[in-house]
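step 4 of 6: structure.
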Amino acid sequence: MTSNIPVRVPSAGELTKLRGNKQLTKLKLAIWQPATIYTARVNQTFTGSDGIAQLTYDGGSGTLANVTQGMTIFIGSSSGAFDKGICRVRKTPTSTILYINETSEIAFADNDYITIVDSFSLWQRDSRLAGGTVFMDYDIQYGTGTPTLIPRVGPTASVLVSDGTSNVSFAPPSPALSASYDGASVASYSFTASGATNTSGMTTTGPSWEYPAGEAQYRWQCAVTDDENRSVSTERFVFVDPPDIPFRLLSCFGSFDDGGWQFDVAIYADIAQTAIYDRALVVLYADDYYQDVSGSIGRLDLAGYKNVVAIGWVDGETIFINSETNEVTFSVYGAAHWFDKLRALPFELTHTTAAPTTWKEIQDMTVDKALAQLLQWTTTATRIMDCFLTGDTNEINIIAQPAGTIKDQLKAIATDKLFAHPLVNSYNQLYIEIDPQIADSTARSGFTTVMAIGETDRAEEITLERRNVTQTSMIELGGSETYNGSAEVLVYSRAPGNIGKQYGYIEAPNGYVFADQDECNRVAGALLAVQNYEYEHVDIPLAQNNRMFDIAPRMYGTLTITAADNARGIGFTNRKFYPRRVAYNYDPDAGTMTTSLFVEFETTGVDGVTYYPPSPVVLNNVSSYGGSPISFPGIDDWFPPVVFPTVTEPCNGIGNSYGSAWDEPQLDGGIGPLTSRIYLPCKIRATGGSYPTSLEMHGTWWGDAATNYNVYGIKDGVRVVTATVTTISNYLGTSYNTATFAPVSDTEVDGFEIVLTSGLGASVTYTPLNVIASGSAAATDSTGTPVSVVSGQYYCVDATAGSFDPDGAGVLPSVSACNFYNIAQAHTEQYSGALYRIFHLATGSSHNVTVADSPGNFADNTGGPVSWVVRNVDAKGRRIDLGQVTVRNVCAI
Amino acid sequence: MTAPTDYELGSTLGGVQTLTTLNIPNPESEFIDYSSMVKLADGSVRGLGSPSATWHYGFLSQAQWDALVAICTGLTTSIYFSTLNNSGDFKRFSGIAKLPERYVLRGPTTNLRYIDVTVTFTLLVDQST
């Protein structure tokens, strides 16, 4: 069996062919003509077209059992037509109900024609919030039967050409790279190949079968099952002896900037207009000859794949029908284009250390786990294509993204956290990999060097655009260490150092995740190097029919240029490069196809330096306004004139709402303030009415704040009404808090007050900040080193090197920690290898750092010394960041 | 199949016949080894693409023309043929035959002549390997 890795080194014989004369290519097209699986007629009336998720039907014809989840449905005004729209089979239909993707864009009507065809496209699968529960693809609730399991079984399509009389053999790549991302593991595979004969190994990683010669198309499936007996199926498509379609190739290229491939064609044949529909699957493939011998050289060295040039789906908007010349011109795009078109809803995923209970949680969340859930459960991608992920194991606390496209979400998860880019290769396989220029040396050592490009490989001219002034002066990189489940540790780095280069801009990318500070420093240096890459633009035209390079997966080529061959004397030997754009140039009359590469030379950075940004200054943190019982600021003292709204509605009138803002934006249970107010003279409506008075409070409740605060109506400085507080989630899955009042009678107030209970509470997030002191503690030092601190603030003491034995047993333990001597520990965590940091709340102006394991017991200590640093700490526990507040249903005084 | 020793033409590989048999005269032929030439970085030249060939006739009689188009049935036709290469050997190829887009007819209808007929063969694949 052949591994499903579409990158390899051509053999010596293949290199000889690539470097020889007489390279002939005949390009051909295969267009999937989906067979009709089932037809029916809509059998219901509709009051509107909003949010239709199922259709009642009758008049069914065909085998209902052959209707499969993911199949395409045509809705038309006549049999087989799709003039009204196209949708998707969401789940197995019943004898009277067809379940479709929830849609509002098709004006369904009774007796519409339903045609279910053997075609699978790339779709989004929308989430839905109902009754406070999130469902995937309309009605899939999170549970034990919802695996995040990514099957990887090869390119989306293949093309087999027989000799006209004999069966043609087919063997897909091994599915062994399939993977689970929810803690399970892959257990078995089962292949099904309808229309095939002589099947073998269909439950192994090396299946094979045959198809009869002659024009036909087939679909095969692989069901991947995990060790919890949950299965995910994926579909692939095979063309056998596709008919010749006269056409002209206008362009064919893949680029890093576009994220994938596209090709443009003009067809001359009398193709029925319905045969080229939006999202038709098209394969561009080749009949290759090298020195008069038939045979293709492809990255995946398997029959049916090595002759494939590119795969994609028709973008219907470019279909151009010319009545005089009968020419149809259209563009075919791989999945990258469609990811950028598919609408995506907003999402928020949070890390949990326990087993998740909703779709919004992922246990020990990494980028890959988030990507796997997104691709599997919010798209149909894993149903029809391979999706390879980063392999990064850093954990992340929260990932959130507003509404946009699937590509936006992939970027938010991967690119904005790890510098990993979603790229779709010419085989329509998705690779989300950390940019090779950012990857470390260990990862780079695993990249395949496809080919050394020499003077007999490339055409005469090569273009080098050289940059002799750096464009980036400094990279100030920020992010967090891998999340440990409780504390987010921020890390920062500057490259080249605290002083930038002479030329260029300062860039400050932020929000990434790293293994540790050292990794942040390394990446900062790598970023600076690639942005100041000496050669801005390198075009390499190859004088050969060479399809061994692609934009993904990551791969090297090397280039040699002789200094004597150019006026600038630029020369290098076997310089590594990454392909960033690959284009095929085809001359149908001559039968020649050559390749143009746009490449980026490999860069290696110098690690940046650790950088600690200054602590933010909290402005307007006024704890007391003094004066009147209601501590509002004097309008003419601190704020510009403010006109408070006048409530005019009567208490027995209709509802109303007033937007407002709290006078204190943040309440902190540790350091205060604890109270914030709104000034709005009005009456709170009595209970029992249709429009109860409430406050809709947006913001973020940290720690246990959600169960430790109250809201009051206040009059003359006195709390006259107490609200009932609840948490509400809206249709977008976001949350806000509501305070609802229910006084016995209409009650006059001057405004409203929110009060947080004092204390940090049980759930505290500690964030180490800048270093304020450092030193070394001897194992028997009972005095320790004094460090100036501020009472009431948090600090941590990090052991940075060394270890000691606390009981003189003679065995140095593998772990070590330093303390503020005799000061209570607020929190302890292992932060780097076998080293600990211990958090304290300072109770004086100076505390001593020692390695004491218990008060006064230093005499039996051995080993050490232990190096330490003391850092400021931002301890966030019970806290409320107050946002906008809407006061509803108050009435006039 | 045995190696060709004369000009041949046919719709299938097994059905090729000499032009003489088909009542078509032997042409003045030209053979181009490569459709495209690319200069490489080391200064050498690589020939890419397939060979191409042309057959030229000063004139063809009506009967000879009819025999030709009986096999080259359209403006372009997939055919098999044998022609002289630049080594002076006959080689058998598959390819696309392209008839002239324009031609001159001369003479009475009872004795028509097709003047200056050139048939072009492209995308040749050697059938002897």
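step 5 of 6: annotate
 - DSSP finds eight helices and 65 strands in chain A.
 - Chain A touches chain B at residues 21-24, 26, 289, 292-294, 454-460, 462, 543-545, 565, 587, 589-592, 594 (CB under 8 Å).
step 6 of 6: archive
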